[in-house]
Amino acid sequence: MPALVLVGAQWGDEGKGKATDQLGGQVDYVVKFNGGNNAGHTVVIGDETYALHLLPSGILSPGCTPVIGNGVVVDLSVLFEEIDALEARGVSCAKLVLSADAHLIASYNRTLDRVAERFLGNRRIGTTGRGIGPTYADKMNRIGIRVQDLFDEGILRLKVEGALELKNQVLVKVYNRKAVEVDAVVEELLSYVDRVRPMVADTSLLLNAALDRGETVLLEGGQATLLDVDHGTYPFVTSSSATAGGACTGSGIGPRRVDKVIAVVKAYTTRVGEGPFPTELRDADGEALRAAGHEYGTTTGRPRRCGWYDSVIARYAARVNGVTDFVLTKLDVLTGWERIPVCVAYEVGGRRFDEMPVSQSDFHHAVPVYEHLDGWDEDITAARTFDDLPKTAQAYVQALEQLSGAPFASIGVGPDREQTLELRSLLP
């Protein structure tokens, strides 16, 4: 069996957790391959709602092995808080596997993230302040700390000393903060050794062996396409590779093993943090979308910026990810609008762009070109087949599919597991 990749097609918060959870019972491994605890997935199972931040959504599927891959940056305090909270609710985390090559978020990374963002003022990126960016910077600067370093105290201390040699200069002389003590950092990290040791493995070897045995591996991306460090709306992006290409580097699975790329796209558009957003609504419609869709960050609680569906970025996501199937979510949120605008292109300085402008400046000044589709008033949350939807809702979905560059495999009409219309199988 092949590997499947699941990514977000917009700026995140599209409902990837629900999509992963739906597949969790049909796959053997679910792998988080990028990001850290700077994003969250919300999964609703019956009357229970689970907010996941660092753990893969597959943790909620008993027959599935959840894996945190090498491309993830891990805050161990958050990891064990999340594990403890789930186990207190009766969810076993005993099968969780953590890559020995994943990088660790140290306390000084969190400190630098927060003070640097405040220092930027109006030029701030809108980070969550959880140390994600500085940890990825350490990784690329080759001064990072990996999970495997926990098991050799001498190496761990040398690495922390090397990192703090520069970082303390910055903290003290640039940001006027106290220097971080090496002993305090080493002591904190070593306090997790006994608990973390049983879950650590060579996850690349583990996953490739599983594929060789004919098992199915789902690679679950954090954040989304427009937040990818290479292909997103730079510099207002995350610090990792959130697109399908990152699934290979973040898990140690070769690209020839990937058979399907599934992208999750919301029936409208949202974004958290700073950066351009062509279809953003700063009016009553935007407030109404936020209220109806409960658009507040799973991890941060920040209100999400809301706007109409943008087919330009959907086509872009289809292209850079090689999307084979889209999952459309939150169609029910649009109930009640008489007419629903859909962005089909941009206009910049009198020029029409049917695809993403190459220039950040052009994208920043992009004015959406809208087509208006008929809405519906009927409650669609009880629909279980496409034919159960009102004709105008069916037409809306069909129009989005034609505009977005890949077929729709399923449609979400509510937050629960059961509130999903399957149009075609997501499995090969």
From TrEMBL:
A GO BP annotation: IMP metabolic process
Superkingdom to which the source organism belongs: Bacteria
The entry's keywords: Cytoplasm, GTP-binding, Ligase, Magnesium, Metal-binding, Nucleotide-binding, Purine biosynthesis
Binding site for IMP: 13-16, 38-41, 128, 142, 223, 238, 302
Top EC category: ligase
Note describing how the cofactor binds: Binds 1 Mg(2+) ion per subunit.
Presence of keyword GTP-binding: yes
Active site annotation, chain numbering: 13, 41, 139
Example GO molecular function: magnesium ion binding
InterPro entries, per the entry: Adenylosuccin_syn_GTP-bd, Adenylosuccin_syn_Lys_AS, Adenylosuccinate_synth_dom1, Adenylosuccinate_synth_dom2, Adenylosuccinate_synth_dom3, Adenylosuccinate_synthetase, P-loop_NTPase
Subunit structure: Homodimer.
Protein known as: Adenylosuccinate synthetase
UniProt gene name: purA
